[in-house]
Amino acid sequence: MTMERWIVPVAVAATAAVVVAATWMDARVPRPAPARAAAVASTTRADLARTIDDMRGRLAARPEDAEAVVRLADALLRMQRVAGDGSLAVEAEARLRAFLSRVPDHYDARRMLGPVLLAQHRFRDALREAERARAVDPADAYNYGVIGDASLELGDYDRAFEAFDTMGRLKPGPAAYARVAYAFELRGDLDEALRHMRMAAEATSAHDAEGQAWHYAQLGALLLQMGRLGDARLEFERAAYTFPSHPYALLGLARVKLAEGDHPAARALVERMHREAPTPETAALLGDLAARAGDRAAAEARYDEAERLEREGWDTEEPQPQALARFLAERHRHIPEAVRLAEAAASRRRDIHTMDALALAYFRAGRLDDARRAADEALRTGTVDARILHHAAAISEARGEGELAARLRARMRTPCFDCQG
User: Fold this and answer.
1) CB 251 within 8 A of CB 273
2) How confident is the model at residue 357 (pLDDT cuts 50, 70, 90)?
3) How far apart are alpha carbons 147 and 130 in whole angstroms?
4) How far apart, in whole angstroms, are the C-alpha atoms of residue 138 and residue 369?
5) What is the torsion angle, in degrees rounded to the nearest 10, for the CA atoms of residue 253, residue 259, residue 260 and residue 262?
6) Least confident stretch, 27-41, 129-143, 162-176, 258-272
7) If we measure between CA atoms, which residue out of 129, 103, 39 comes closest to residue 77?
8) pLDDT at 183 > cutoff 50
9) How many other CB atoms are found less than 10 A from the CB of residue 225?
């Protein structure tokens, strides 16, 4: 589990839906998801668990069962999204590769590797597999979704948007609409992002409870960015009702409470999440809430826990140094290490969240010129992400650029309620 699991505006998930969640910490973001509906008949938590057990059993009896391996991989990715267990994507890859060693030319199994690798944050590997599948079937919209998702993560936005356009032409539907929504969000057009995400939610099958909840949570995240707290709360509540305890729904409700200034209610929600599935995100947010309450010792203990959980997660998932860099820089911890981590991340990917992490790390280290250059890259899409704008404004102010800082703050659709420092 990385520091950004619930964080960014869109995350890659399983085969049927996309994952967007502009939350409190952000720096990575698997984004949208594949293009065709999953094979599972229903995606409630119980049905996902049942599908996983059933498909494991089918494969044990018949390892060459193509339908079983594809359905299992899809269900494992969906369960990872709601349970925060990175080992499920690792299992999905192992199952697919074992099947492909027996049936190397099976198209559906081969193309499923793309989202599985995205879920592990192995974006170049995912891109390679999606391009391989596209070469076999250039008319399959699914592959363009994966190509776009991976390109977003690497910061190649032109290529990502072109892939999403192709996907939408080939197969309009929830997965394409959600990706277009995120493209508008990246460009700072939250109204169009909201419109397209509503289209995605409305087009999602009533049998797909997890996919519906995911889309409702994304609507909530967009409304929260727009400062429409009451509307955001309704969408997060709808997500929580559709798929009880969906983490994006609960975290969204906690962020609404933070924005409203109801810190005890926010803390209760996050403590519930942390008891059920401890993650770096929930530990860090509990630390932030303790710090706001003036309990510095409790805050530091939670921050230590968040850092430990993040580093331990790298044993099963691809390390995400930009996520840890942002966490450290935002909380004024181990700044030389934060710079090293952010620089390492930026050497491999140039997405706006990674560049924001680099800008903040440089800022904390007093390297204002470097911070300004990185912040300019973080702003290059026209984003109105409050956290990115908040950091860029602080950097400009420190450089004596008061007018620029004021313009950056004026671009925010809502204050950064959960920014640190």
Assistant:
1) yes
2) very high
3) 6
4) 45
5) 70
6) 27-41
7) 39
8) yes
9) 21
pLDDT digits (tens, 9 = 90+) for 89-126: 999 999 999 999 999 999 999 999 999 999 999 999 99
Q: What is the pTM of this model?
A: 0.87
Task: Tell me the C-alpha distance between 49 and 402, whole Å.
Answer: 54
Ramachandran quadrant class, 244 (left: phi over 0; alpha: psi -120 to 50; beta: rest): beta
Amino acid at 163: A
Joined together, the tokens standing for residue 234 give: 């309704």
Residue 1: pLDDT band (50, 70, 90) is: very low
